[in-house]
Amino acid sequence: xxxxPPFPTAPPPRLLRVAPAETAGAIGGGLRNxxxxxxxPSAVVELLGPGAVPCFQGLLTNDIEAPGDGAFVYGALxxxxxxxxxxxxxxxxGPSVRFTVPVEGHEATLALLxxxxxxxxxxxxxxxxxxxxxxxxxxxxxGVVQRSGLPVPPxxxxxxxxxxxVEVARAPEGAPFAFQVTAAAAVVQEIGQRLERSGALxxxxxxxxLSRIVAGWPRLAAEVDLKTIPQEVRFDxxxxxxxxxxxxxxxxxxxxxxxxxxxxxxxxxxxFAGEPPDRDPLxxxxxxxxxxxxxxxxxxxxxxxxxxxxxxxxxxPGAVVRVADAAARVVMLPFxxxxxxxx
Length: 343
Fold this sequence. Notes:
7 helices; about 30% strand; alpha+beta; disordered C terminus; seven-stranded mixed β-sheet
């Protein structure tokens, strides 16, 4: 008699590099003092049925029950040993939960839910083909969304749903985007046009990656590798873990690390003195010792190259490291959109 299928794992990581040409006009026009709207390459999976919320509560690192109906939270699905399988945003609408993950986490999310959720309690529905996701970033995002006629959720971490099932989610402070709009693929273009007429600049997905890097937010298949534990990639700082909810898969490792120990590696920012090499992988060297890897890179116009790296915890902010033939300074996250060039 065959046993259960093997537990899914995160996809292998790669270095994510945002080319300057992909975001050239976005900073001054949107991220710094305006609003941008861009498609988010995402998979959308729903859990439906009377047991959907409690079942997902038993899998997600964050709490989807306590905030009640209309909650919008960030979290991860883990292996029993506490390693991230997928990370994303969970929206609770009545008895259902919608989980939006990077496309790289699509198959692993479906496999984990199929393995972990009893069909008599809830069923998994893959909505990736029929739903599309837009994200709005920038300090004027709320005004743009309101002028477009879309509903603005009453507070951060909440959703609002229209009669024609357009879901507008308002992200918590510090998130890499301000609003997430999920709607039928057939109407997303029209919604994007409404947001553009209301003052948003239309951009490509690279702008969302730039915003994520500036916010110091982890991403599956970049910062998150096959053996990443949530605290290694800032889940405590960004509110991705609840330490007051009930049990969930992988909780023992996460809680033990939180209450009794510390991570051996941490997600940090890098400010480069010049352009980093265009290769993958990029190792980080400190005092003639390899101490980690660069995970994401982007160029800030009028500021220079920045990046994210998972480093040994003994490499403190302020340290100068080598990335191939480039020098970089280690900094705390998030980045500032306005900063001097590194010396």
